[in-house]
Amino acid sequence: MKGPCQPRTHQFPETDFFGIPRHFVYTWFDEYCDWLEYNISVDAAYCLPCYLFQGENINQGGGNVFSTKGFTNWHRKGSFATHIGPSNSVHNQSKRKCEDLMREQQSIQAAFYKLDDKSKHEYRVRLNASIDVVRLLLNQGFVFRGHEESESSLNKYNFLEVLSCSKNNKMTSHDIQKDIVTACQIETVKAIIEDRNSDYFALLVDESRDVSRKEQMDICLRYVDKMGFVMDAFIELVHIKDTSALSLKEAIVNVLAHHSLTLYIVREQCYDGASNMQCELGGVKTLIRQENRLAHFVHCFAHQLKLTLVAVSKKCVQVGELVLLISNILNVLGASFKRVDNFQESQKKHLQMALDMGELETGRGLNQELGRVKASDTRWGSHYNTLEERASASGFLRSCQIFETIFLLHLMTDVLGITNDLNVSLQKKKQDIANDMILVKVAKRRSSLKKNIGWDSLKENVEAFCIKHGISLPNFDDPYANFGRSRRKVVICTTLHHYRVDVFYKIIDWQLQELNDRFNEVTSDLLNGVSCLNPIDSFSSFDIKKIMRMGELYPNDFDGSNMRALENQLVNYIIYVRGIDERFSNLGGLGELSRKLVETKKHLNYSLVFLLVKFTLLLLVATATVERAFSAMKIIKKTCEIEWMMNS
Fold first, then answer.
1. CB 246 within 8 A of CB 281
2. Closest CA to 62 of 75, 43, 44, 47
3. Any residues with CB less than 8 A from the CB of 408 and at least 6 apart, and which?
4. Which residues, listed in sequence order, are joined to residue 234 by a DSSP beta bridge?
5. Is the separation of the CB atoms in 292 and 265 below 8 Å?
6. Where are the domains of the chain?
7. pLDDT tens profile 55-91
8. What is the number of helices (H) and of strands (E) in the chain?
């Protein structure tokens, strides 16, 4: 038994008593630490011993209130002392019973299994040996059990074989192995929670279907430990039956509550894989933001651009069909080496003709033979690279030489090219967030210009390409024939209106909407603050105004007085780290800055600045950082989980 539930960091709601707002005071936990507990869901206080040992006389001393109904009269603190009563009160009797329950020697099991010192020592030796083997197998990710574990088996598989190396044939029960693993999990998570030191954390969640077709959800915490190191800690794998956003959020809350955590101390959230989680309107992040507006969502940049493309592909049927067409053609072409050779030979002829006609330039690195990249919905850059090879792909496009395909190829190449520089920049190992935000503005402006003045040039390029390759052009004044719609529901419009309004304008509008949603004003202010706190090049990007704006996005942590104190600290801080202490002159990033502040104990002098540094470290914007975290979660979710299921 862990003891009474005492959520000290919870924001206790207020209740009106005779015109005066009152609420539960967390310092009461210090006065009545051994029995007082608080239920967040009903906003009531309880007595743990009286709840566990309710008897016939439980109604004495207000016991029924503290054991069943729940105490809510916050203006009457004296009721706590009244509830305790004299030494022989019901509360004190229940408290003694609770203490006996916690005392191992008083348990019935201990009375039945009394062992002498020698037996206890031998048992502990066997237990330690089994724990050592379990620790080894868990660290290596090995399977515990095998198909044949009898005494006559030549290979009893990992657990028994490793255990037999010490000539120990005791404590080999599968149930004991599971108990040891469970104990390891409990102690590990307990150590993680203690290492967090009741500080703020970021929530990392990944949900997907494993190979057994079960919906699983992994939950990780990211926090800054006492030494200033950023820690990503896996705490639980949850099986979920309902993948709706509300159910996922409820599962997350239950896991956090199980470990005495709440959403109120979450400062950032990050999701991967599940569309339910990534949806702005109905997703988990929105539900959590409704409960805690300080739980900001700044996902990995590279994932955001991938989501933009996937969203466009799903909204526009023609674009989705184009991506599927390219994937199918590449699969057919790459399935046979002979087809690849024939294709390459045909392309050599086309290339030579283009060179002779002056359509292509010659030079080092130009017109090289490249492999066809397989287009993938989750690999954003592969689409742009694949579409860029359309000149060399003219051979396999003969089977689909229609105007609509050519139009979409040109359109998507132009649209994806607008954000390609941003995508490449975000994929770099060493990210420059300030430059990335400039590229975001460039991408938004180019998209707007493309929509306003880009139609005529696109139409001319498509028509020129079709005339060159003998592809028939439609009459733009004719009604557009949409073969995918029912004739009863068909909307009559001209071919020009369809391609210009229903395709060209809509795709660009969707791109702009995605960019604006993912890189909104709050996100931009957060990322500008991250960039300004970065110690690279002797804090060259430091900007007090932008950092102060970042602090305003955490109003619970930086109120009016704290904002004034933060401004003074920032002025003193930048003078100190730039010109006084040389230990801060060659730092490689925010992680090193955090560790150096703790190492030099300057996190105590500049506590508000250090709090902002921790918030920046919780923001999961780095591609490599997020990928490492989610890759580790996938190993646990897929590979290890399958092996663990074999052991069950």
1. no
2. 47
3. 318, 319, 322, 503
4. 220
5. no
6. 15-110, 115-184, 307-518, 521-619
7. 656 555 555 788 888 899 998 888 888 888 888 888 8
8. 31, 9
